[in-house]
Amino acid sequence: MIGWKSPLEGWVKLNTDGASEDGRISGSGGIARDRGHRLGGFAKHLGIYNAFVAELRG
User: Fold this and answer.
1) Superkingdom of the source (predicted)?
2) Fewer beta carbons within 10 Å, N or C terminal of the chain?
3) pLDDT recorded at residue 24
4) Within a domain: residue 6?
């Protein structure tokens, strides 16, 4: 299993992802964290894109 690794002290890590359902609907989301706290996040409907574009925009 792959697990999330916290960033070094003083750094922030931003993880993002995008997804599409057969090129009909797509979305993206992400979360920003430091060593011990969630700093913010987002989720966004992107519209009609394939999975490749959703990943790029995520």
Assistant:
1) Eukaryota
2) N
3) 84
4) no
The domain in which residue 30 lies consists of 13-57
The DSSP call for residue 35 is: S
Written as six digits, the tokens of 43 are 């989720």
The pLDDT tens digits for 19-50 are 998 878 999 999 999 998 999 999 999 999 88
Tally of structural domains, the chain: 1
Buried b (16+ CB within 10 A) or exposed e, 32-56: ebeeeeeeeeeeeebeebeeebbbe
Query: Which position has the token pair 């964290």?
Result: 33
The residue written with tokens 């979360």 in the block is 31
CA separation for the pair 30, 20 (Å, rounded): 15
3-19 confidence digits (pLDDT tens): 888 899 999 999 999 99
